[in-house]
Structures are given as structure tokens and as C-alpha cells.
């Protein structure tokens, strides 16, 4: 079925007949095209129809669904949970970050009668969005990775972030469903309140090391992951707790976590031309940027270079938050800091050992002026900065 969605620069209705010619059984349209094609079904709103159909399909199959949201680590945690559960069950998980008002319905419509458990990621940049997605998904279990400084513009500040993400908890409470939560996170405990149908995690394991990779002790056994950064410890703990709840064997839990390799520019470790690179260029906000910089400081290397790109959707907080990150990067005393983007470029004062570029194109023009030899790099910025392109410059 072809759903004729509309965007700022396209109108799917214009492609309905072409979709049918190319093999679609039906085209769902909301503009009454002047034809008598019985394969075109006219509805009031195509997007609403897609969402309602996904909800109907979800209720009809009644597959157990785990939903998760949070400011940082959603996708990595989703992938870890899927890695653990798929050792034992036929699972379905959100592809990439298809976690919005279109991506969530598309994920639900991939459910089949063979699916035993689904893991559905939910993203949001304003209040009421998680509530809306939860009402479509109707999750049986839920998890919030954390509350951080992400999408401050849409949420109106950190209090809005907490309120918006907590809509998942409120939905689960209202429908008497199960909440997984990090019992080392006081803020999560506060949001859960006196609700009893919960499963805590964070106490089952012990962090051994996080440089370059996270290793932990679990049931007197050592797990050596391929994830960098102590912040991934909580993401691993969530996957372990969910695996335990669904009776996945200890052996399969350990194997799944050790074999999971991050991709898609998320905390990837890359070796190139003598350089070690932590590529974390999929997204960035002040909370994740701070965690990544502190983790980078702890890495065993003398020649560290941090290449940081602008953080988007911070609204009125943009100038202050970019200044804080620039100062933090300076105070951590890396060999070199390279800041890219108009927000970083406008920060004051300008720090020594720090280079400022308005855009990636400006950086590209002058990149050969740097003398990099066997360096360790952190590359991090918001998706719109596409800083993975720096790999081509090395």
C-alpha cells in the first residue's frame, strides 16, 4: 500500500498513480484526484490514517511491546535490547532512528504473527509527543534512558524535557504496565513515585573499566563490550535487566552484549592512517557532548584532538550551552580542539589551542594546515553538521 504523505517540499498524492503502476495494491490519498481508479482510496488525512492503521494492527496482533525514550542513548539501548532478546525470540525493532510520528507507525506495521517481542524507540522534541506515540503503540513495558539537555528549544528547557519524556511513565502507570528504570538515577525514581509495577536495574553489575571499551562484572563473569564511554554502562544494564525478565540465559545475554558492534556514527571506534577515532557524529546535545568529552579525557593517549560541531535545537540556550562546552573542552587540556559551526564560531572568549570554523567547508579548506601524527580523535556534532565527513579529510 502506498500512503501519499505530504511534506514541506513534496505531495505524495501526485505519485499515487505511478505507485499503482509500479505494483502497489492500493494508494491511500487525501486529495480526490480526478480519476475512477478503484485502487485509490480517498481518506480525510493520509498521515492520521497511517497512524490509526498501525494502532489497529498492533491491537489485532497483540505482540508484547517494549517502548523506550530518553535524551541520550535511545538507539544504542534499543539495539542492545534487541541483540539480547533476539538470541531467544523472534524480535522486531525500530530500524535506525525511525522513532517519530511517521517512523513509529511504520515500525508497528512491520509486526507479523511470527513476531514474539517488539522493541519500539520513541523520539520527541516537544511536550505531548511521547504521549501521542504511546497512545498509538500501547506498550506493555517502558524505559527512559535518561533526562538531558536535548531539544531544549521545543521542550522549553530542562523541566519540559523531564515532563515530556515522563509521558511514557504516565502512560504505563495509567494502563498498569511495567516500568524498567535505573535505580541509580534519583530523577527517574522521583518521576515514578509510588508506582509499584517496576523493575529496577543498575545493581546487578559492577563497572570494571570504560577505556577504551566498557567492561563489567555480571554474576561473577566478566563482560567485555565493544562500546566506549562509561555512559554506555547504563545502556548495557538496561539490556541485561530486560533479558533477565524475559528469561534469556546468562550465556546468551553475555554473548549478545559482547558481540554488539556500534554503527551509524554512534560511538564507533575506527583506526585510520595511524589515528584512533571515536566517531560519535550521529547527534549531539549538551548532556551527551559533556559525557563524550569526559570519556575522551579518560582515554589512554597523549595526542588527543576533539573536533566538535554545533548542537542544534537549543533555542534561547544555544549561545550559553555552546560556550559551556567550548570552555569544558579547553579545560580538559586536549592537544587541540577544533570547533565547527556558527554557534561555536560566535563563542567568546576564544581559547588557546582551539581553532574556530564557521562551517565544515571552512574546516575542509584549512585542514591540511594541521599536522596530525598518530592522534586520537573525538568527532562529535549534531546530525545536521555531518561531521563524519572529517574521516575523508584524514
Overview features:
about 400 residues, alpha/beta, UDP-N-acetylmuramoyl-L-alanine:D-glutamate ligase, Protein-Tyrosine Phosphatase, Chain A, 3 domains, 18 strands
Describe the fold and architecture:
The protein has three domains: 2-44, MurE/MurF, N-terminal domain (Udp-n-acetylmuramoylalanyl-d-glutamate--2,6- Diaminopimelate Ligase, Chain: A, domain 1), CATH 3.40.1390.10; 63-259, 3-Layer(aba) Sandwich (UDP-N-acetylmuramoyl-L-alanine:D-glutamate ligase), CATH 3.40.1190; 268-393, Alpha-Beta Complex (Protein-Tyrosine Phosphatase, Chain A). α10 packs antiparallel against α11 (250-259) and α12 packs parallel to α13 (318-331). The protein is of the alpha/beta class and 394 residues long. It is built from 16 helices and 18 strands. A six-stranded parallel sheet has the order 5-6-4-7-8-9, with helices on both faces. Helix content is 36%, strand content 20%. It is globular. The mean pLDDT is 94. β8 (178-182), α9 (186-192) and β9 form a beta-alpha-beta unit. The two termini are 45 Å apart.
Amino acid at each position: 500500500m502506498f500512503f501519499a504523505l505530504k511534506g514541506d517540499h513534496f505531495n505524495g498524492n501526485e505519485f499515487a498513480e505511478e505507485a499503482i503502476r509500479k505494483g502497489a495494491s492500493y494508494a491511500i490519498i487525501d486529495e480526490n484526484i480526478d480519476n475512477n481508479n478503484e485502487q485509490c482510496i480517498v481518506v480525510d488525512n493520509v498521515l492520521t490514517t497511517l497512524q490509526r492503521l498501525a494502532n489497529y494492527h498492533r491491537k489485532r496482533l497483540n505482540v508484547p511491546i517494549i517502548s523506550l525514550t530518553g535524551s541520550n542513548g535511545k538507539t544504542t539501548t534499543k539495539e542492545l535490547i534487541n541483540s539480547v532478546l533476539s538470541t531467544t525470540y523472534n524480535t522486531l525493532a525500530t530500524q535506525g532512528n525511525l522513532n517519530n510520528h511517521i517512523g513509529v507507525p511504520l515500525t508497528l506495521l512491520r509486526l507479523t504473527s511470527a513476531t514474539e517481542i517488539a522493541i519500539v524507540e520513541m523520539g520527541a522534541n516537544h511536550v505531548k509527543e511521547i504521549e501521542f506515540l504511546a497512545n498509538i503503540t500501547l506498550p506493555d513495558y517502558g524505559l527512559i534512558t535518561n533526562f538531558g539537555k536535548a531539544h531544549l528549544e521545543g521542550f522549553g528547557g530542562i523541566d519540559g524535557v523531564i515532563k515530556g519524556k515522563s509521558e511514557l511513565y504516565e502512560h504505563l502507570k495509567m494502563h498498569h504496565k511495567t516500568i524498567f528504570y535505573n535505580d541509580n538515577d534519583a530523577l527517574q525514581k522521583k518521576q515514578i513515585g509510588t508506582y509499584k509495577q517496576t523493575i529496577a536495574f543498575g545493581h546487578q553489575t559492577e563497572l570494571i573499566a570504560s577505556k577504551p571499551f566498557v567492561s563489567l562484572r555480571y554474576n561473577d563473569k566478566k563482560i567485555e563490550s565493544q562500546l566506549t564511554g562509561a555512559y554506555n554502562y547504563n545502556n548495557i544494564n538496561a539490556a541485561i535487566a530486560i533479558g533477565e525478565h524475559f528469561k534469556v540465559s546468562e550465556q546468551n545475554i553475555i554473548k549478545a552484549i559482547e558481540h554488539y558492534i556500534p554503527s551509524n556514527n554512534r560511538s564507533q571506534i575506527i583506526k585510520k592512517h595511524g589515528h584512533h577515532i571515536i566517531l560519535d557524529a550521529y547527534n549531539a546535545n549538551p548532556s551527551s557532548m559533556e559525557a563524550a568529552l569526559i570519556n575522551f579525557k579518560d582515554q589512554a593517549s597523549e595526542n588527543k584532538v576533539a573536533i566538535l560541531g554545533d548542537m542544534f535545537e537549543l533555542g534561547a540556550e544555544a549561545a550559553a550551552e555552546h560556550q559551556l562546552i567550548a570552555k569544558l573542552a579547553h579545560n580538559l587540556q586536549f592537544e587541540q580542539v577544533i570547533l565547527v559551526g556558527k554557534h561555536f564560531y560566535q563563542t567568546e572568549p576564544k581559547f588557546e589551542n582551539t581553532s574556530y570554523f564557521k562551517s565544515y567547508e571552512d574546516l575542509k579548506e584549512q585542514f591540511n594546515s594541521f599536522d596530525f601524527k598518530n592522534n586520537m580523535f573525538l568527532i562529535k556534532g549534531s546530525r545536521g553538521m555531518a561531521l563524519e565527513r572529517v574521516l575523508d579529510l584524514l
